[in-house]
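Folded chain entry —
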Amino acid sequence: VSTQSTGPKFKEEEEKTPQLYERNRQLRLELQMLYKQADTIISHAQAMKQSDDRKGMAFPSIKNNLRINLQRLQNEVTELRKRKATAQIKYEAEKANREGVEKEVKTLRQELINSKISSSVGGR
């Protein structure tokens, strides 16, 4: 069976899959790190509030930066999930198409064999 039935798009998407998984893993690790940083900063800020120290004035800016970074990472993870889902749908469609083509090739081969047999029997 020819590999042309899978098509070049399938090959392209199949080659992108490991890269998407790796990028997704990296983003998850970065997101976990930012959550830990945010937790540390929040606990530090709470301690600063309790001690009524004025040095905690930089906290809102850091907190907002972390929120922005967290939102950006969450958006990237969401985008990667969408791309993964799209690639999975394309893969399933190509797979179904390939199976259909393989069945059709088998049927045509059987018909060809049957016609050769009948023509050789009829030609005697």
Summary: The CA atoms of residues 19 and 64 lie 31 Å apart. Confidence is low (pLDDT under 50) at residues 1-5. The two ends are 33 Å apart (CA to CA).
